[in-house]
Amino acid sequence: VTEHLSKAITLLKEHGVSAALLQTPPDLLYCTGLDLSQGTLLVGSGFSTLFLDGRYFEVAKKLPLDVVLIKDPNDLYSNLERVLKTIPGKIGFNPQTLCVAAHEKILACCKGKTHFVPSSAYFADLRRQKDTDEIEAISRSCALCEKGLRFLLGEIRRGVTEKALASKLKVFWFENGAQSLSFEPII
Questions:
Q1: Cα atoms in the Cβ-side hemisphere of radius 13 Å centred on 61
Q2: C-alpha dist (Å) from residue 66 to 10, 30, 41, 87
Q3: Residue 44 binned pLDDT confidence (cut-offs 50, 70, 90)
Q4: Phi, psi of 179 (to 5 degrees)
Q5: Each residue of 31-49: b (16+ CB within 10 Å) or e?
Q6: Tens digits of per-residue pLDDT, 102-152?
Q7: What is the C-alpha separation between 19 and 48, in angstroms, rounded?
Q8: Rounded to two decimals, what is the model's pTM?
């Protein structure tokens, strides 16, 4: 189990929650180390199951947790039902990102045995605490932003549009090691 996943499990125990259902990309990245655009992680003491489609399945199989391939979106709920019925007590979820329809389908999977509680604040607080690797990544990101600014200052001239400068900056960043952008550049 990853260090972050262990911290998440400890946090759940501290709040009296048996497990958490995580679906947001920041939570998935924090707990798995994988940059997933979609997936569902059910994490608790003694178990962690990641439900993914085929795009991520092969790379995720290397993780120290159970990985279940979801071929059809509706398969998620039948697979969740199999796991959720074994979990006693409260299960945390993020009420800000779980739509009502999905929440109702998940409740149906539990057949009334499980109590769902909002838990998004737990994980937001946990992600705010940075470890050494995260601090180093933030430092590298800041250095790349500064390097990008110096590059961009050399590109500014009469007739060059903000849109063209933003495009050049994005290309520069990716050519120099960026993996993604938090938001579109503001020139």
A1: 6
A2: 19, 17, 10, 16
A3: confident
A4: -100, -30
A5: bbebebeebbbbbbeeebb
A6: 878 877 777 666 677 877 777 787 888 888 988 999 999 999 999 999 999
A7: 9
A8: 0.77
